[in-house]
Amino acid sequence: MTTRNVNLSRVPCSAGYEIRSFEIESGARFLLHLLAAQDIERDVGSPQVRTESMELSTQVGGHALALTQMVGFICSRGWSLRECLDLYKQRPKALHSLTYEVEIDANYKYFINTVFREDLRSVRQSFAYTLLGILSFLVPDGIPQDLFEPKNKAGLPKALQFCNDALRWEQFTPNYVQNADILNSFDDASRPLLRLALARKESKNSEERKLILHRLLQREFSFFIEPHERQEMFEYASWLLYRAFPERVAARFMHSRWPECERYIQHVISLLDVWRQGGELQKLHAPLELCYLLSSAAWSVPFCMSISLTCLT
Q: On the CB side of 65, how many CA atoms lie within 13 Å of its CA?
């Protein structure tokens, strides 16, 4: 039995085994293996082709099915790896939605978006949908759970009440939530995502609780969601990061607060990158919280030698 529902690994099954994505380098080798088997890229050992395979593996986060489907797309069009990579960078939404039979397996008639679409539909009528929307704007490899536990809850948007400590939701229900009689906690909002393996938690200790999700899921969610919902969730992500990131204080250095800055700076840059992007998605409008956040983040960057100030200008 194969499933995304982790509960089924206990009932009716007696045990389960999680199949994770390839590491980027392993995904590149897998891609080259498939291309060689199809006799498409004859010079699979050349530095250029290896670099291109690494790029494509990075773009899809080492997802085995996505890599396989990419090879099927290359086969059906007679394109080179370079041509496929360039098209994916320019029009990822179009490639995610293709549903024709790929040449690598004539019995498989679906494409990349089918990996997540049904699960995304199943959480759409819940607060997990808002949570996933926020996560889609951040660096996927390690999102601090502390982000969803703001110390200062003044002005907390009503759609973020799962960041509260109360046991039940306040008298508010977003228009996409049908059942408001649910527990009001981050754990309850994240449970559907964990159950469907859309996200997973890693907790080394009480200080390092992180959420991890797949890069491909982030991209697919941005294609799945309605434009006005995407704008709302971008504003929620900006609000939470603004509250979590140490605020700049005039005439004071931020040496003592650098550990907090270091925890969130990559997510600030990710949020900025999303705001800059255009392409197939509607341009996002920057809320005031994002402006204030960037001001504080730019002030803190000189204390981290690994990040260039130009990222935030």
A: 14
pLDDT per position as a tens digit, 259-304: 888 899 999 999 999 999 877 888 999 999 999 999 888 877 655 5
Following DSSP, what letter does each residue of 191-228 receive, concatenated? HHHHHTTS-EEEESSTT-EEEE--HHHHHHHHHHS-HH
Report how far apart the first and last C-alpha atoms of the chain are (Å, whole number): 50
Q: What pTM value is reported for the model? A: 0.79
The helix/strand/coil state of 56 is: helix
Residue 144 dihedral angles phi and psi, to the nearest 5°:
-60, 130
In angstroms, the CA 297 to CA 264 distance is: 9
> Domain residue spans in the chain?
20-115, 118-312
Q: Helix 258-276 vs helix 288-300: angle between axes, to the nearest 10 degrees?
A: 130
Beta bridge partners, 210, equal 144, 202
- Tell me the two tokens of residue 274: 């999303």
Q: What is the pLDDT of residue 248?
A: 76
301: its two tokens: 């960057």
Instruction: Tell me 302's DSSP state.
Output: G
Question: Is the bond preceding residue 157 a cis peptide, omega within 30 degrees?
Answer: no
Instruction: Give tens-digit pLDDT for 154-193.
Output: 888 888 988 875 444 343 445 545 444 444 578 888 989 9
CB-based contact 54:24 (threshold 8 Å): yes
Distances, alpha carbon 232 to alpha carbons 54, 157, 235, 274, in Å: 34, 10, 5, 14
- Cα–Cα distance for residue pair 53/60, rounded to 1 Å: 11
* Tokens read off for 139: 């660096």
